[in-house]
Amino acid sequence: MRADGAPSVTDYRVVRRYDGYSLLYIETRTGRTHQIRVHMQYIGHPLLGDTLYGGAPERIARHALHCARMTFTEPLTDRSVCAACSPPADMCALVADAADWQFCPPEAHA
Question: 56-94 burial, b for 16+ CB within 10 Å, e for fewer?
Answer without folding.
Answer: eeeebeebbbeebeeeeeeeeeeeeeeeeeebeeebeeb
